[in-house]
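Design request, tokens follow.
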């Protein structure tokens, strides 16, 4: 299986199923996979634990990475592995002549979606350099609110 280090998978820790960032997995850990056998249909598959036997960094791969959303639980099966749709940490996005620092609080910890943004660089502008909270409002789009510290 090839995944980015920011993907998250389900593991078992002391009998409790938890979501773990792939970069935190170690050889010997267990991940939840769909037990599909020879069936092509995974809708009604059972899940089993499989031991992580090897972890290798494969470098940068050309192509697209898709962020899937499967309601209502944001979980899905990819290559027989049960995957959770969440990211950890932050990302840097370069758009036109600006660099935006984006991040999302760990949804499992805060129990809600919290998105943030900092404009790190914007060519030829004297812009606000603090953080914004980003809300997605139906019918309006993205609403930015300056964070008060």
């Amino acid at each position: 299986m090839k995944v980015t280090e920011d993907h998250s998978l389900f593991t078992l820790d002391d009998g409790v199923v938890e979501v773990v960032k792939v970069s935190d997995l170690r050889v010997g850990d267990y991940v939840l996979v769909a037990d599909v056998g020879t069936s092509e249909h995974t809708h009604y598959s059972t899940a089993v634990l499989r031991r992580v036997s090897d972890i290798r960094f494969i470098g940068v791969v050309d192509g697209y990475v898709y962020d899937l959303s499967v309601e209502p639980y944001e979980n899905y099966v990819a290559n027989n592995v049960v995957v959770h749709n969440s990211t950890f940490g932050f990302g840097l996005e370069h758009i036109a002549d600006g660099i935006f620092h984006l991040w999302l609080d760990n949804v499992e910890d805060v129990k809600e979606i919290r998105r943030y943004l900092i404009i790190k660089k914007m060519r030829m502008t004297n812009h606000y350099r603090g953080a914004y909270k980003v809300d997605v409002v139906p019918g309006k789009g993205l609403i930015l609110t300056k964070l008060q510290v």
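Comment from the thread starter after seeing the answer: thanks! The first helix runs from residue 107 to 110.
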